[in-house]
Design brief:
Blueprint (H helix, E strand, L loop, with lengths): L9 H12 L3 H10 L9 E2 H7 L5 E8 L9 E7 L1 H9 L3 E4 L8 E2 L2
Parallel strand pairs: 1-2, 2-3, 2-5, 3-4
Helix pairs in contact: 1-2
Length: about 110
């Protein structure tokens, strides 16, 4: 019998359920990515966020890692942050916020 895939954390499951209730394409897309198995989620480095963010908030449906550098202030919503990623984002003048607080203005980073 195969092992179940997808999130098993009750907080993540509740977040997915809340996003699906909003019935907007942005939130449904985030919920779809959050529902993926851990093996198929690719962590995002701060370098990638720095390259693609253009003065707009970024939503990461997974973990943000601290590899590389970020030089511009960016508001990042993510499921989790490594210590070094949080330090680098805040040192550049940005903010690290939980994914529960995301708004539609954010751009999804996959």
């Amino acid at each position: 019998m195969p092992h179940p895939t997808g999130p098993t954390d009750p907080n993540t499951e509740a977040l997915i359920k809340a996003m699906k209730k909003k019935k907007e394409k942005f939130y449904l897309n985030l919920a779809r990515h959050l529902a993926k198995s851990a093996r198929s989620k690719v962590p995002v480095n701060v370098t990638k966020i720095g390259k693609f963010a253009n003065n707009e908030p970024v939503a990461v449906p997974g973990k943000v890692l601290g590899s590389g550098e970020i030089k511009k202030p960016v508001v990042v919503y993510a499921l989790s942050f490594s210590k070094s990623a949080r330090r680098k984002i805040t040192a550049s003048g940005g903010k690290c916020l939980p994914l529960q607080d995301v708004d539609k203005k954010a751009r999804i980073m996959i």
